[in-house]
Write a structure and sequence with these properties.
Elements: H1 2-18, E1 27-35, E2 40-49, E3 55-56, E4 62-74, E5 81-93, E6 101-113, E7 117-119, E8 122-123, E9 128-139, E10 145-154, E11 165-175
Antiparallel strand pairs: 1-2, 1-11, 2-4, 3-4, 4-5, 5-6, 6-9, 7-8, 9-10, 10-11
Length: about 180
């Protein structure tokens, strides 16, 4: 089972690295959260925007775009770190009077944890995990983002041990 996870994870990472991702960094982010293991999480990330609108509603009130996200997370008292990479798709709503624009985002990527045994009763089964996320936020008039994100990490059943771990985080992105 570990070999399947490594092959799938490697294929996903290769696809991301070989795609037409802009070479210029578009954003830096910080997320402060609380995990299902009752520990504080600190996530630092870098983002590369897709550089194009993927879809726009006929009236223009909705637009779909996205970005690549690469981040490192410190899992507080669990003495664990993780690195994850993911494409993230963002549904943007029409901007309000003050210039702020609401959005919903979702993505599925891969993550690597420095340890698979996080706490008593929490065994991820392997260091390689899938990283799922959903989030809500606002793009502010200055171009920066503030939001709330939920992350779920698990091995999707590739290992019989699959406790999974979650974190709910406040998010801030500095657009460059």
């Amino acid at each position: 089972m570990k070999n399947k996870a490594v092959v799938i994870g490697s294929a996903a990472l290769a696809a991301m690295l070989l795609s037409p991702v802009s070479a210029a960094l578009d954003g830096l982010s910080v997320d402060l959260g609380h995990s299902s293991e009752s520990t504080t999480t600190l996530r630092l990330g870098a983002q590369w925007d897709f550089g194009q609108t993927l879809w726009r509603s006929q009236g223009g009130d909705l637009a779909l775009d996205g970005y690549w996200d690469l981040a490192a997370t410190h899992w507080g008292s669990l003495d664990t770190a993780s690195i994850d990479a993911s494409p993230v798709f963002r549904l943007n709503f029409a901007a309000g009077d003050q210039g702020a624009q609401a959005y919903f985002e979702a993505g599925i990527g891969i993550a690597w944890f420095s340890r698979s045994r996080l706490a008593p009763g929490t065994n991820l089964g392997s260091s390689l995990q899938f990283a799922d996320r959903i989030g809500l936020g606002l793009r502010l008039a200055n171009g920066n983002d503030v939001g709330l994100r939920f992350f779920h990490y698990s091995n999707a059943g590739f290992n019989r041990r699959n406790s999974g771990v979650e974190t709910l985080a406040l998010h801030y992105r500095f657009n460059l």
